[in-house]
Queue: 2 jobs
Job 1
Amino acid sequence: MAKQEDVFKKVVSHAKEYGFIFPSSEIYDGLSAIYDYGQNGAELKNNIKQYWWKAMVQMNENIVGIDSAIFMHPTIWKASGHVDAFNDPLIDNKDSKKRFRADVLLEDYCAKLEDKAQKEIEKAAKRFGESFNEDEFVTTNARVVEYREKQKTILERMAKSLTDNNLADVKALIEELEIADPDTGSKNWTEVRQFNLMFGTKLGATSESATDLYLRPETAQGIFVNYLNVQKTSRHKLPFGIAQIGKAFRNEIVARQFIFRMREFEQMEMQYFVPPGTELSFYEEWKQKRLNWHLALGLGKENYKFHDHEKLAHYANAASDIEFKFPFGFKELEGIHSRTDFDLSAHEKHSGKKLQYFDNERNESYVPYVVETSVGLDRLFLAIFSNSLKDEVLEDGSERTVLSLPPALAPVKAAILPLMKKDGLGEYAEKIFDDLKFDFNLIYEEKDSIGKRYRRNDALGTPFCITIDHDSLIDNTVTIRDRDTMKQERVAVADLRRIIDEKVNFRTLLSKI
């Protein structure tokens, strides 16, 4: 645990030191769980958005993108169920005065059980070597079976209690398991109560005439209320999808773990409209498609797993999370949900407007069903950033910190580094910079030794360093250094654009999906 905490602290520290993420309003002592993206963070974030948008919209002929408003008619949130049901179970520790989500306390307890099961599996794998049969072991080993059965029992009971709004049983379960405040060890808990997560605001010139509004807690409803407009103007037949990237706001009970859980965050969502009765097959299809999209990033297949929901949201008939192994354990990265026709039917009822689709093949009108894919942009940023940050010991015994981001996502694609400013090297380097800047985001550096500049760009995640020396003035060649291999190669200046593009173009990711 201590090692995980150290890794996470390093992630947070590196993000600030290299201009990726800053605490918001820091000179005024900040705001809890609100962060600003710095110059390099903004670039990385925008590149992640591009990767998602290209894969979701550009690569699918039947998916289009929109950008809906943050402020929406208040009845929308009544229709969607957010006014009545968008709650988290809240519990306080009487001794420490700290507030927790009751379901998260139970999920964290189950995660520890799974960690114990994994340790048993790892020990057996080491003991038996190549002859180890994991499938057989996990079904026959008494400890692993016990750990996983206990997990299943806890999660099923919690799901039923939350569905039935039996909050007393949620507290009883916490007490039976002797779950303590993770910081103080106190087991002195209050009753569990529901807490609505929406931020309220007002629209109007005066307080007397102002309309009560909410900051949107999700981007999906902006898609649903525009479904008919998009379908008619795009002339798409079912199945078709609508994608959106946008801000959402939730008054989280416990906002924690850096940018993993924030009160202001960004979502990348796609709602896929399908004929009734076909939704579960499309649900399975999109589960695999979305996993493939993540795997193309090269962060390691072992760092992903599916988690099927025991407790379904009020709108769903199937739901699963793609979980990622963050420095603090496996946590939700993306959700894939079969939302049925709940949203469109609810908006049809509350608005009095028909939101049906006429299916020529079926010769009937119906409200489409929906399959949703929803990934948190900030969580994805954290997954990529934390997985890419590494400390390496080199052959000569020296160490370096490298941020081995997927090259297409790297904030800066190449650093232009004249060996020195004088003797015309600076002017020649600037010409290279001016030629390549139309195609790539670059930085120009002439301060410090070339070794220090290499290390700085390794830590920044820059895929290439291009060094200009005196020979460059004679033969129009430069030294290009690869971030990951540290291999240096002499190449013609005329070939730089092609060499860089081959590695950093989005094609390198999209072709792997």
Job 2
Amino acid sequence: MMPERSLPDWLREPRWWALLALGLALGHAAVTVTPLPYWMLPPIAAGWLLLARTLHWGAPSRHAPARGWPWSLVPLIFWGVYVYLADSFGIVDLGAVFFHLQAGISEHGGGERTIVAILYTLAMLPVLAAFTWLVRHDHRWRLLERLLALVLLATNPLLYGIGQRGAAIVAEEGAWLEQRYVDPVILEAPSSPPNLLVIYLESLEQTYADRERFGDVYAPLTALGDQGVVFEGVRQIDNTGWTMAGMIASQCGVPLMPAGLLHDSQLEPLERVVPGVSCLGDLLAEQGYSLTYLGGASKRFAGKGRFYEGHGFSRVLGRDDLAPRVDNPDDLNSWGLYDDDLYDLTVEEIRRLEKQEGPWGLVNLSLATHPPYGYPPDECRRRQGEFDGTDILYSVECSARMAHDLVKRLAGEGLLKNTLVVIASDHLSMRVSAWEQLTAGPRSNTFMLLGNDLAPRRIKVEASTMDILPTVLEAMGFVIDWHRAGLGVSLLSEEPTLVEQHGLETLNDQLKRETALHERLWQGLDIEGMAPDDTSRAKSPWLSPEAPPAEAAE
């Protein structure tokens, strides 16, 4: 009678190492791409091993080991890429991937994600080796493996999105959004146009205002909102969920669909960013505004500088321009300036603008809450205690307080007279330490307006960041066409938004099929079949079958 083998004997068998590697990979993928909590990883891996033992996967058999390479290796690599993106960003936006590759990813501050990418690559090697071993030593897996390869390809959201977009281009279908696009036009300006200060708070969504989930980390912004107009329910549609896309959505009223195949020189950086649409800067520059952009990160990253320079801004200042002007030029984070330094320079720039004749506009982008952990400056450490390096709620509280103090400081110096202040998150947060709490319920972006004689109130809407452009224009006193600009509707009007009319799911579904608006965004680049000065596309607003607003029909 053979003695019962002990656990160490099991571990001497290659198949258990191979099966363990595959089980851990399966568990990690499951908890990363689904709402399952991380503690489910061990049970999933254990369940895999139990099933493997029951079915004798990889056990010695009369079949000789094969020597070929599994067809599923490439599909597994694609899944590895998708899991890495999901682990890094929470929600994988293919548009963000394509746009950053084309607009430029140099001088980014995501050094820690580069390290994670290397670790993911190294971790994939034993997974691929384990799968190869299993297929070669178990004829049952070998027989089903080609079918598995097709299943892995068909179920990968990364490849599904690429295929769906490609099908829309080949079919030349998709003008649903284009038919609802309204050229931003200022019909009438106030006699004394107000100045404009836009403070983008990186990833600092309004969801953090839920005290049951997040305590008082959002309280400084709540206090500011009590003095102005707060919009609750500003959702995020696809292709607006990263910084450049969020700023374009809120300033141009459109989602950012990457140039992609519309750009002849695929491997060259974009010379212009969404040149085919008018944006906030274009409209204000035509009204005589002096416009400045200030950001702590490099203006070369993701085409940020090209966007602002191409849409009416006369001064575009990023890390390289601003770092020499701070007290300690070496005191930078991996992205660039800390927000306390950036805000000091913002005050200086507004003082300069105030001395000039004519109205001014300034757009400011913070960094303190940039995923995955944030970059709180020493000022917050003095007030909040030590930062553990991972708690995003610490960074949220820090950023909210600094924005509050910036507005109070400017108001105290009399620099906000006849000024509309806009405070908005550029997009919803990507994966952070509070991810499970953030995704536990509906999420919305921060959007509030202060000053310019607006009566304090809270407005509950179902909207998107594309509605910010017309709302800001009307809050400044400009009269615009049908209360609309781009795909947005002024939230100060009674007109329904696209989200209210159709819902987020319909908008996102139509966005995947859209080609006509895509061409409009990049009109002016070398687009196949469209000359740079092509004006053949109908410009008439509101071409949809829906009835136009009553005042437009009169």
